[in-house]
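S1.2 Input.
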Amino acid sequence: MEIQQINDTRKGYFEAVEDGKEAGKMTYTWAGDSKFIIDHTEVSDEFGGKGVGKKLLMAVVDYARTNNVKIIPLCPFAKSVFDKVEDIRDVLSS
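S1.3 Output.
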């Protein structure tokens, strides 16, 4: 599975693609220069239960760490993963 990022100055998304099909997408909106809000996660029905959402979130966490930005998880899915996985909370906006 390949995860690609499409980013512009105000919004962007991470997209998971497998065999040319979109498996899922996690969208975000920038809140200034140093943080962004994850606002939606969507996984295609045929990829449900395969951990696509978590793979997307881990790609977002890697991006945040690499670029020294913080995340505000308003999306219920993203928030639930941050609540469960302690070692990714370093990228949360305080």
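S1.4 Remarks. The chain has a mean pLDDT of 97.
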